[in-house]
Design brief:
With about 300 residues, this protein is of the alpha/beta class. It has helices spanning about 1-40, 45-55, 55-60, 90-105, 115-125, 140-155, 190-200, 205-215, 225-300; strands spanning about 75-80, 105-115, 130, 165-170, 175-185.
Length: about 300
Amino acid sequence: MANDKEIKRKILSIQNTWKITKAMELISTVKMKKAQDLAIEKKDFVLEVLKIFLRLWDFFKDFPFFNKQENKKTLWVIITSNKWLCWGYNINVMKKVNDYILETKENIDFMTLWKKASLFVLRTWNNLVSDFSEDFGDIVDTIFIKNVTKYIYDSFLSGKYNKVVIFYNFYQNSIKQIPVAREFLPIEWKEIRDYLTEVTTKHFDIDKELENIRDNVDYIVEPNIEDIALEVVPMILDMMFHDIVLEAKASEHSARMMAMKSAKDNAYKIADELNLKYNKARQSIITKEVSEIVGWVEALKDS
């Protein structure tokens, strides 16, 4: 009896785990859907703003945001999650960072968003200059984005860094998230084109839009290029950074949803196996008791 009682306790424990992981899966599914909706809602705005940017590229290309500084130091921004239980989401980004450290041999400072990134930097004895982990959670608001990007702009324009690279997970679908290293500053045409393609390919004909831009090249910039650049460029970069963070959050919730689904399915499988084992143990006990009764009956008949 002690054995089947122990099995019964294990079954109850596994069933509780199943309930918890199922609840976490549902919560992550809702959060992932919200992050996806936020990313999709801004597609039209993203396209129009970037079209303005591409039209004015020739005016902007000599602005400080577009030129590398003389300093050889690089700022790396790492975006992870605040918690684990999201499969390889954080590990994949950290592997990407490690690979780049080995490849580039650059003099690097680190800025982190969310706790797992800051813990990774500190445990690997790298130089952490700024951490925004405590400033926000799952809800990504524009005020937070502006605080982060202001720090990045000020650091870059002051000449402290020659470039800024962002490491995060790009959301491809609910099953697959790709770790990405995106050069954020200085701004380059290839980066803008890649970003425009990634964000809008499913919703617009990119080649047609770019052709329309090339057909309309005569502009009078008022009041002057400096004022326009100081307003438009940071706005576009803020939008790009916001999109990156939303992609990272959608990837996180998707990874956690799949991790909890896998844990839930495994818990169900283990509970089913334990139930079978419990039933066999009970059947064995019942069979033994019936055999003993039959033996006693036969013994009484003989007497």
